[in-house]
Amino acid sequence: MTPFRPVLFAAIAATGALLLSSCATNEISQPGDSSQELSGELNGSGATSQASASDAWIAAFQLANKSVTINYSPEGSGAGRKAFMSGGVSYAGSDSALSDEELAGEFAACVPGTKAIDLPVYISPIALIFNIDGVSKLNLDAATIAKIFKGEITTWDDPAIVALNPGTELPSATITAVHRSDDSGTTKNFADYLNKVAPEVWTAKPADAFPYTGGEAAQGTTGVIDAVTSGKNTIGYADASKAGSLSTAAVKVGDKFVEYSAAAAAAVVEGSPLVQGREASDIAIALDRNTTDPAHYPLVLVSYLIVCQEYADPAAGALVKAYAGYVASPAGQIEAAKSAGAAPLSAELSARVAAAIATIK
Predict the structure, then answer these.
(1) Which band of pLDDT confidence, cut at 50, 70 and 90, is reported for residue 36?
(2) 291 is in which domain, residue-wise?
(3) Given 260, 276, 304, which residue is the final one in a domain?
């Protein structure tokens, strides 16, 4: 496994440098900003990947704004987007941006006729976690991963896996591949990677729901982690911040096998374009899954705060604007790096997100 902690200091240092470089121009609200007198309750729901970072963000923001209460329920990206669109919460956390179909719908919390926007605030690798008898290191390429999770490769000593792991004694044990049972942005990112890099195998269109039968289904990130940990000869996918002591596979990028790191995840995002055809404040990233640069780890997720461009309730809009401003600020990104090993937003992306947040009403 490649733990987050060795790269965490670099991430914090990079974020700290960003903080110093942006002090003069950063207009994002910070916790404890004396110019603001915030009060009220804010409810959000969504991605389990954001849970650790959200706990840290909320604690810091509430400490500085003692009349504010923020509740975040990590029920999965799909559930969060649905709750937000129906008006059940004021913001959503999601490991995938709103689809064109969702943007064409209505958003109950927003002023009629206005739309929601996607704000990237959390960058993290997706780890391929495994628990194989007698094996602590594992190399996999996209086509082999796809065949494992589709059920086309069923034993750990399959020739395709053996060829990728010379010198490793792999057991002739049945593979148990664990996937999410709930609608999950992590699943969509995992599927997007496989569909882009191994399209001849993973033919299903990327979606929040896992597309194939077989394997073992588990609820949420915690459920996947528990199933892989407690099972035998298991493999699953999860936000890397939750991998803990589990072993993790290296993924083939170009001609090399790359282990996950916050720095390698940030590098992919930095080199990826924005989704075309969106409003200026809607910042959805089209991740470059097909990179061959071994400094990149393409099995990555970008998690978003999804908010209204203009809220029907101005008080809710003010709270969301202030909280989102803190989350995306250098100080908020440092909290995410410390609490979850997340990669910080680059200076360019941070400035773009700050400008988008400034338009929230």
Answers:
(1) low
(2) 5-30+37-121+265-357
(3) 260
DSSP lists the bridge partners of residue 93 as 46, 305
Strand 300-308 to 91-94 pairing: antiparallel
pLDDT digits (tens, 9 = 90+) for 118-173: 999 999 899 999 999 999 999 999 999 999 999 999 999 999 999 999 999 999 99
Query: E strand or H helix at 306, and its extent?
Result: strand 300-308
CB 301 within 8 A of CB 187: no
User: Same domain, yes or no, for 190 and 233?
Assistant: yes
Domain count, the chain: 2
Contact between residue 98 and residue 81 where contact means Cβ atoms under 8 Å apart: yes
| Helix 330-340 / helix 5-21 crossing angle, nearest 10 deg | 180
Find the DSSP H helices in the chain: 5-21, 51-64, 77-86, 100-103, 142-150, 159-164, 185-197, 220-230, 262-270, 314-328, 330-340, 347-357
Helix (H, G, I), strand (E, B) or coil at 11: helix
Is pLDDT at 188 greater than 90 in this prediction?
yes
Question: In angstroms, rounded to a whole number, what is the distance separating the alpha carbons of residues 3 and 56?
Answer: 20
Alpha-carbon dihedral sign for residues 103, 105, 109, 110 = positive
pTM given for the model: 0.81
Same domain assignment for residues 233 and 279: no
Question: pLDDT digit string (tens) for 212-223?
Answer: 999 999 999 999
Query: Measuring CA to CA, which residue among 150, 148, 156, 153 is closest to residue 213?
Result: 150
Both 112 and 60 in a single domain? yes
